[in-house]
DNA sequence: CCAAACCCTCTAGTATAATGGAAGGTAACC
DNA sequence: GGTTACCTTCCATTATACTAGAGGGTTTGG
């Protein structure tokens, strides 16, 4: 069992923020010592690191909460949890492909404007337009009957 | 040339928010008609869609601004822009792999807890932990300097 | 013993990212 | 010419996610 300060250093999240996460239900209420100090376990550290990872990726506290629920509620109604998890996985995969799309936009930028001072670089005209190069196939190929 | 309402509908972003983006420098100041109405072009629509994509992915307004700069400043100092773009691409790739890590966490959840009511499901013990290699945690950190 | 470094709760303030509403001008249609 | 749907600016408010500070108790070490 460790105090909040140690946990704070281990997860690189301030003690204030840890208490805040507790107040909004992201972190569970920990056991208390006789002195009233919060007593954390190794699992709390992992939880906090999970939260940190997800927050860093731009998931809102509420969204992280949803992911956390999946994670903590895994002991009961596993079938439901599994379904919800698959849903979240799907959303994350969409997110990944959108990121890939933005990456592709930027890569095209660097490839088209390859270090000289050419005045035009028609990225907008054919790349960002229509969502991205990655989705241009939507226009050009049928893909679905 | 289109008015803000049309642009708003095309990009699925409220007129209020478009003006807000203008006020914080994300959207360029558009031309004005004789009536003072904002006059937008096709490119503004693309710009707005780029902003929307990036914001949806959790990039802050400032970060989106950085991406926008790359995009709009491509006409001058292409070499520098290229370097900065490569940097951003790198960051985005890191982001993608972090997302993949979270996805892996969730996939493992569904695989381990495969729909029955088994009480334990040792995801924490070997999965989320694996992300951060420093699990030499409880070896009592120094508490005083 | 006492100071420094912890910890506690509670309230308030900040930054970000919008969103709402007032007050009024403009454009389109009947 | 009136009504409705636009548009304008400016100021206020909301929601989210912390962050700071007051005021006070606890633990550790010289």
Can you summarize this structure?
Two copies of one chain form a homodimer. Chain A has 145 residues and is mainly alpha-helical.
What is the number of beta strands of chain A?
A: 2
Helical amount of chain A: 55-70%
Q: Quickly give the structural class of chain A.
A: mainly alpha
Q: Residue-averaged pLDDT of chain A, rounded?
A: 77
Distance between the termini of chain A: 60 Å
Biggest contact = A-B, 61 and 59 residues
Low-confidence stretches of chain A: 114-145
* Share in β-strands of chain A: under 5%
Order of helices and strands of chain A: HHEEHHHHH
- When the domains of chain A are counted, the total is 2
Largest sheet, spatial ordering of strands of chain A: 1-2
Can you walk me through this structure?
Two copies of one chain form a homodimer. Chain A has 145 residues and is mainly α. The first copy, chain A, has two domains: 1-60, Multidrug-efflux Transporter Regulator, Chain: A, Domain 2 (Orthogonal Bundle); 76-145, no CATH class. The first copy, chain A, contains seven helices and two strands, in the order H-H-E-E-H-H-H-H-H. In chain A, strands 1-2 form a two-stranded antiparallel sheet. In chain A, a hairpin with a 5-residue loop joins strand 1 (31-32) and strand 2 (38-39). Mean pLDDT of chain A is 77; it is low at 114-145. Chains A and B meet through helix 1, helix 3, helix 4, helix 5 and helix 6 of A and helix 3, helix 4, helix 5 and helix 6 of B. Chain B binds a DNA duplex (30 and 30 nucleotides) through helix 2.
